[in-house]
Amino acid sequence: MSIMKAYRNTTHTRDEDEILVSFQTAFENAMDKDASEHSDVVALVISYAEYGVAYLRQVAFTFHAPERIQNTMKYMNSVIAEAVNEAGLHYYNQEHGFSIVDKAVQAALDGGGVVTPDEINAIIDEIEVGYLETEAEEEVEH
């Protein structure tokens, strides 16, 4: 998390309420299915990352953490964790100690406030490779 990056580099974030509508739409699309899919996770994480940058930008300019946004992010994060699980993906990178949302917010900070589907897919791939390697090692041991 970088308050300085949020102050300097975030020119593309929408209003928090607009971003939340995008998240809610992605959530509703995921709920229209029996289980979340990879594409649902990507859509949810993109909105979360932009929302996280909007939060950090507000903090950078006011040095005050807006409680409403902070609380909303907790619920958004919970939805993402459930969607990741339903999609058969992993939330956390074991080797490097970051979550999908941590890395996505950092990517959004680096991208001026937004993150692309390709960037989210690269984060997911990075997380999944670690689990594939662990599973392969466990199979060799048995």
Characterization of this structure:
- Strands 1-2 form a two-stranded antiparallel sheet.
- It is built from 6 helices and 2 strands, in the order H-H-H-H-E-E-H-H.
- The longest helix is centred in the middle third of the chain and has 25 residues, at 38-62.
- It is globular and about 50 Å long.
- Strand 1 (92-93) and strand 2 form a beta hairpin.
- It has one domain (3-141).
- The mean pLDDT is 90.
- The protein has 142 residues and is mainly alpha-helical.
- 73% of the residues lie in helices and 3% in strands.
- Helix 2 (16-31) runs antiparallel to helix 3 (38-62) and helix 2 (16-31) runs parallel beside helix 4 (67-86).
Keywords:
142 residues, two-stranded antiparallel ribbon, globular
Helix/strand order = HHHHEEHH
> What is the alpha-carbon Rg in Å?
16 Å
Compute the separation of the termini in Å: 40 Å
Structure classification: mainly alpha
User: How many H/I helical runs?
Assistant: 6
What fraction, in percent, of the residue positions are helical?
Answer: over 70%
Largest sheet: 2 strands, antiparallel
Q: Report the sheet-strand fraction.
A: under 5%
pLDDT average, as an integer? Answer: 90
**What's the overall geometry?**
globular
| Unreliable residue runs | none
Number of strands: 2
What multimeric state do the chains show? single chain
Integer count of domains: 1
Lateral strand order in the biggest sheet: 1-2
Map the helices and strands.
Layout: H1 3-9, H2 16-31, H3 38-62, H4 67-86, E1 92-93, E2 98-99, H5 100-110, H6 117-141
Helix pairs in contact: 1-3, 2-3, 2-4, 3-4, 3-5, 5-6
